[in-house]
């Protein structure tokens, strides 16, 4: 596996963990519930560790934008289904725009930028 491919995989898992720690943070009710609070801290550390690993190879701006984009899209989806936050037509359009941006950043970021 190439170094760049490994960095993208680390970044993907970092973003997925961001979705989970954002969810456990919501469940912690402002860090007042111990279990979800501890999970949030552990998952946040793991997520940022993977992000830091990806930053060794990928440009920081691209990496961070993709990381937060994955987290934002996933958290909106989790919020809609787990916390009944709803998905309006505009929310779906904007989330789709984020997904297109994430894919676009992946496509235009090549080894020459790293």
TrEMBL record:
> Superkingdom of the source?
Bacteria
The family classification in the record reads: Belongs to the drug/metabolite transporter (DMT) superfamily. Small multidrug resistance (SMR) (TC 2.A.7.1) family.
How does the UniProt record describe the way this protein sits in the membrane? Multi-pass membrane protein
Q: The organism's lineage?
A: Bacteria, Bacillati, Bacillota, Bacilli, Bacillales
* Residue ranges crossing the lipid bilayer per the database entry: 32-52, 64-83, 89-108
Mind telling me which PANTHER family this protein's record contains?
GUANIDINIUM EXPORTER, SMR FAMILY PROTON-DEPENDENT DRUG EFFLUX TRANSPORTER SUGE
Main localization (coarse):
membrane
Q: Where does it live in the cell?
A: Cell membrane
According to UniProt, the name of this protein is Multidrug efflux SMR transporter
Which key words tag this protein in UniProt? Cell membrane, Membrane, Transmembrane, Transmembrane helix, Transport
């Amino acid at each position: 596996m190439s170094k760049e491919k490994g960095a993208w995989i680390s970044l993907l898992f970092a973003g997925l963990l961001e979705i989970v720690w954002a969810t456990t943070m919501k469940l912690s009710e402002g860090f007042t519930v111990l279990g979800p609070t501890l999970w949030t801290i552990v998952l946040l550390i793991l997520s940022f560790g993977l992000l830091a690993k990806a930053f060794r190879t990928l440009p920081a701006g691209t990496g961070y934008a993709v990381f937060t984009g994955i987290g934002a899209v996933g958290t909106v989806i989790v919020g809609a289904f787990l916390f009944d936050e709803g998905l309006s037509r505009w929310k779906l359009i904007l989330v789709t725009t984020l997904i297109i941006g994430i894919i676009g950043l992946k496509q235009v970021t090549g080894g020459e930028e790293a």
